[in-house]
Every structure is written in C-alpha cells, then in structure tokens.
Amino acid sequence: MKNVFTIYRNDWIRIFKAPVAALLIVALMVLPSLYAWFNLAASWDPYSNTSGIKIAVTSEDEGAVIRDSSVNIGDEIVSSLKKNDKLGWEFVSKEKAKEGVTKGEYYASLYIPHDFSAKIATILEDKQVKPEIDYSVNEKLNAIAPKMTSTGASTIVQQVKENFIHTVSESVLSVFNDAGIKLEEELPTIRNIEEKIFALEKEVPKINELGEKVVTLEGKLPEINKQAQKILTLEAAFPDINEASKNILLLEEKLPELDKVGEGILVLQEKAPEIQKLADGVMELDAHFSDISEMVTKALSNVEDMQSFLETASGSLEKIEQGINNGKQLADTLPAFIDANGQALDAVGPVYKQNLLLHQKTADAVHQFAALVQNGNLTEEEAKTNAVALQAQVQTSIDSLTRSVALFTTLNSVTPNGDDALLSEIKDLQALQTNFQQEKKLLHTIQAEDKEKASSLLALSQEAIELSTTLMNRYDKQTEPAIHRAIEGIKDSAQNAMNDLESAQANIPKLEEILKNTDESLAFAQEELTKLHSDLPTIEKKIHEATNLIKKNMDKVLAGINDAAEFYQKSFPSLKEKFHEAANFVRNDLPAAEQDISKVAAFIKTDLPRVEDAVHKAADMVQNELPNLEATLTKTADSIRKFEDEYDLGEIISLLKNDIQQESDFISDPIVLNENSLFPIPNYGSANSPFYTTLSLWVGALLLISLLRVDVRDPEGIYTPNQVYFGRWLTFVTIGLCQSLIVTLGDMFILKAYVAEPVAFVLFSMFISLVFMTIVYTLVSVFGNLGKGLAIIFLVLQLSGSGGTFPIQVAPPFFQKINPYLPFTHAINLLRETVGGMVKEKVLFSISMLIVFSVIALIIALFLKKPLANGTRKMTEKAKASEIIH
C-alpha cells in the first residue's frame, strides 16, 4: 500500500509542478461537463416549440346542404387551425403545398377535397361514404418531425369526428326528447330480444346441419365404440411396444456394424472365385493327402539320414583335430574328409529352408490366435491354453533363429570380403527373432478379453509373416547361392590345404561350428516334422470332413453370398432409412403418442358413456322437438318484421325524454381520462439529464485514457504491476470524481435542471464515475491500446442498448438482450431515481449491479495485469514504433 500511495502522491506533485499539465488536467475535468450541458441545453424543451414546424393546409371543400342548411366543414377546419398555434399552419394552394413539401419548405401538408362536406352528409342517406383528408409528409427532413405532424393530422381528424358525432347525436336526441320516454325502460330489453331472435333465425340452417351431424354421429356410435376398444387394446399393448422400441433403438445402434457386415459380404462376393478356388484346393488336397503323408514320411527319413551324415562328419572332424601333428598330415587328411562328408555340408541349405517353412508356420499360428482373441471367439481357458502352447512354439523358433544367425555369421566369416546376401539374411533373421521375442511377451500376458494386446499381437504376427515370406521368397535366388558359395569356399580351402595351411587350420573350427548349427537346426526340423507326422491322421480327417462339407454346401454358400450382396446393395439402404425413421419416431414422437393415447383411453373409460348418453338425448331432440322449435322461431321473427313494417320505430321512441346537451356531449366524448403523473419532471431537458450525465462520465473516462498514461516509469523495477495499477488508478479516479462533481453541479445550478434529490444526484454521479473510471482504466491498463478500442466499443453498445433516450422495449431484440448487462443501464436508472424521486429497491439494485461491474473490473486487473504486463508493453512499443500511435 505504501508504494501505491507513493505513485499517487508523485502523480499530483508532477502535475502541480508542470503548469501546462495542471491546465490540461483542469480541462479534462471540465470537458465532459460541456458535452452534457450543450446536449441538454439543445434539447431542453422541444415539444413547447413546435410552432416552427410548418404544415401546409389546403381546403377545396365546396360545402353541402343538409336539411335545407348549408354547411362547409372544410372552412370550419381551416378556421379552427388558424386559432391553433401548436404547429406552424400555413394556408396555401394545392400546387404550392405539394411543391413546398417536396422541396422541404413544409414538413407536411393537409388537403381537404371538394366533396368532403358532401360525403359527411351521406349519413342521412341509405348508403354512406366516408370523407377523406389527404396527408403528405416529407420524412427525410427529420426523424421526429413526421411523428409530430402525424399527431397534428390525427388530432384534426379526431376533432372533426367529435364535432360530427356531437351534432348528429344532438339532432337524434332532440327527436327522442320530443317523442317522450314511454318505452324508455323496456327499450334495451326489446332491442336485445329482437337481435337474438333474428340472429337465431339466421342460424337455423346451421342448427339443422348440426342436428343432422348429431343423428349421423348417433349412427356411428357402434363403430366409435369398436375403435375405442382398439385404443384400449393399444394402451394395454404399450409395454410390449416400448420393449419393441428399445429393440429398434438397439438395432439402430448396430446398423454401423451391419454396414460393416454388408461391406464384408461384398468383399466375399468379389472373392467368390478365390473361395471357389480355395475349396477346389481343399478337395484336391483331400484327394492327394496320401501323397502328402508320404512326402512328410520321406522328409522325416531324409532328416534322419542328414542327421546321420552330420554325426559322421562331426566325428571325423574331431578325429582330424585330435590327430593333426603337422601341416603335411592336415593337407593329407582334410581333403579326404571333405570328399567323404560332402553330403553333410550340402545339407546346410535344405535344412535352413525347412526351418524357414516352420517359422512361417509359427507366424501363421500366432496370427490366427490373435484374430480369434480380437473377435472374442475364445474363452478365457481356451485363450490361456493356446497362449501357453504358442509360447513354447515361438521359443523354439527363437532358438532356431539364434542358430541360423550363428550359422550365417560363420558362413559370412569364411567368405573372402564377406557376402552381401548373407549379411542381408542375418539382418532379417535378427528382425524376425526380435519380432518373435515381442510376440512371446504378449502371449505371456494376453487374456481372452484383452482386445488391445490382441491388436498389437495381430500387427506383430503380420510383420512376422511378411518377414518369413521375404526370407522364403529370396531363398532360391539369393540365399541358397550364397550358402553354396560359402560351402564351396570351405571345400576349396580344404582341397588346397597344402598351399594355405594357416587358412585351412583356421577353417576347421568354423567347419565344426557349421556342422554343429546345421545339426541343431536339423533337430528342430525333425521335432516339428515328427509332430506333423503324428498329427497327419487328425489333419486328414478334418480335411476330409471339410471336403464333404464343401461338396454339400458350396453352391448354397455362394448363392447365399450373392443373395446377401444383392440385398445389401438394393434393399438395405431403404431398410436402413426406415429403421432411422422408426428410431426417430421412438425417440421423438412415441412418448407424446403414448401420453395422448393414455389420455384418450382415460376419456373412453370415464367420459365416453356420458358422451354416448348425451348424443342419444340430442339426437332424440333433433328428431322430435327441433321441427316444432324451428316453426315457432320463424313465426316469431315474421311477427317482429310485420310489426316494424306497420309501425315507425321513431314514433315509439318519441316518448323518450332526455337531457339533449349532456347526452350529446357524452356520445361525442364518452371517456374522461384522469391523468396522474408519478414522479413528475417539468421539462424534457431535466428528464434527459441522467442519460447525458452518465454519457459525459464515460466520455470523461475515455478522454483520460486517451491523454494520460496508465503505466508508471519504473526503471529500477521498484513497483509490482498491481501497485502500478492501483497507484495510477487513484489518480484517474480523483480526476473522475472531479468530473462528476462539475457536471452534476452544472446541471443543477447552470442549466437549472430539476432534481428531486440533489445530494443523492451528486453522490451517485461520483459513485458512477468511480465505477466507469475503474472499468475503462482497467481495460487500458491490462490490455493497452486494445483496451481503448474495447472501451469505445462498450460506449457504442451502451448508447444503443441502455434505453437512455427511447424505451429499451422498442429496440431490436439484440439490444434488449444485452440491456441488463450494460453499466449504462444501471447508472442511468440510478440517476433517474434521484431526478424524479427515489424508490429504495430500485436504487439498491442499481448500486448493487454497478458494484458487480467494479468488482469484475478489479478481478480482471488483479489476475491479468501481471500475466499480460509484458505482452501489453511489447504491443504498445510496437504501436509506438509506427510513429503514429502513442
């Protein structure tokens, strides 16, 4: 707080030390007052000075003769207007009036045509014609003047109406007075009965029509009862209907899944040739399964033979290693070993290829398992059992891949300068091994409902399938030739052992490692082939069953796929749309329909019997009593008409006696308006002082933020942003309070504006200035130049939406909606209370709302001043860099 008051004190010390600054501050205190005073003075009492609004009047009325008396109502209107000084009436010709209105010399014109009096006289004739007065107005001259002139024209027409009614009623009542009052008491009753009889006679056709409808309705009562029973049945069925409705909504939710099924059917239809081909392949496999069994048996036998070769070769190689004493002995022994055990080395490639096929099998098995889990086709126990088995199978492949990587590494090491094909094979084998290791981790933790892990496992297994397929596809063209080159290199090195003893000796351990890895890989192949051989009877049985099933059902399946595809393409879209319509009806209309049917059912149960009884009674009356009633009514109406034809109604009412002048005055002007002004304000200027005073206070705040700085020079960084805000805020508020004091005292003592509560007027204005200054100062202090724009936008919105000049109810809907949320609205209302007379509740409400606006502004300052300080400063510096904006 000390720093806040330091800033405030320094501000005023600097102001008083600089005469120009002090003069400017005084000007800023006075300028808003001038804005309010000049506007109030200019519109102090406009409605008492309307005599300057010129209206051209032209009368060409030729008059008329009424009962041997000449009358000219147009001249009477002109005479009346000459005595009227509320508007500037000027009596000119029709042409001059038209030209004057067009050129703007007159705001409006009144033209009384030549037959004006003659048309009024038609009141005494069989056919009356309403007289007309032509009113023209130039609306572009001024927004308010047309309303004033229109009021003047309407007043003239009303005055003519009143005079006319007064004259006519006076004449009629004079005749009544001469005739007497013999029928005075009974005349209203006679008139009322007569009108009702004639009206009832006119309605006889409708009554007959209604009677026929009642009789028809009675005939339809059995059918109505039948339909009513259907409604009761429908009401009883509503629980079932609601249950079916739930199924409709559930089916609508499943429509996207049905769409996917339909799309799958279309894919199946496209794949139908492939499906047929696959089915043919299964049948062919069944036909030649014995050949496959023989092939597996032969392969197993070949593996056993290869194992024998490898064991023999490994034993011979050990003896060679143990018996080597010198280079000559190695040169003699190694070529002989190669010649004797070449088949063992030649088995490296085929054994590796066999293992690749087994790796593909492992990848396919994992992929199928992952798909089953993702589709929810396995129980928890099935998933667990399969996962355990697959873990073992995957681990076997991982071990085999370890040996294969070691094998190819050894082969690459015996190849001079290495071999790119062998290196590529090693890289992909390692990738496949890593993939299988990741699959094993997922298989260890996966569960039947674990869709996320199933999706990951599905992706990994797909990658494994692609890797193993890549390895298999390039075996014949790349991998097998590379293996062959490496083996041949070893053989050549052995044959040339005498020439290169050192190389031959170095290759013996590598040759031993190749044989060892090949033997271990062969063991993996033997294990898998043995397992496959044992499973062949089961596989053969399943293939045979599948073949029989295909033969029996393939045509039906393909036909079913085609039918389903045709239904999905042609019928399903419209069916889906109908389901949506049905679901929308269930959601939107069914509850209301159920409610309506329940109401109808309740009516049927409780009120329909009474309605039936009433219909029967009405039908009986129509058939038995209505003809006599109609005849009586017709006879009565004819008697009344005959009476009126034989007797003059004027002679009957001549017995009436009355006060002619009093009743004539009453007819021409039947209503007395008692005006009671609450909180009277003597003139327009005083009534407008709340608006212009409020406006001047906001303008004063805008002037301050435009000319004074909201920041404080603080090169040493002594003050925090909030201290700067409140320190400079005190300066702005002090000036604002002076502005409000000057404008309110000037309103009362210079303009002599009427104020019912002068002290409250001054104090509340100072409070409003405090609120406005807080809002405007906060906008600029927190948002910089952007805040100035926001303050101006608020001013524009408040001028239109505060209801300061016109009632807010006549403004467009947008301004009516924002009216309660504008500070102007409550500030103007608060000052109006002081000008006209205060109502405690309204005063407290307005003050409360203004306090809310102040609190909001302070909250914005407290929470945004510091975070936005750097951004606001940079934005201000960039604006100043333009050398246009300060």
From TrEMBL:
Coiled coil (residue ranges): 487-535
Annotated Gene Ontology cellular component terms: membrane
Domain of life per record: Bacteria
InterPro entries, alphabetized: ABC2_TM (IPR013525), Phage_infect_YhgE_C (IPR017501), Phage_infect_YhgE_N (IPR017500), T7SS_ABC-Transporter (IPR051328)
GO molecular function annotations of the record: ABC-type transporter activity
UniProt keyword annotation of Transferase present: no
Location in or out of the cell: Membrane
Descriptive protein name: ABC-2 type transporter transmembrane domain-containing protein
Organism: Niallia circulans
Organism lineage: Bacteria, Bacillati, Bacillota, Bacilli, Bacillales
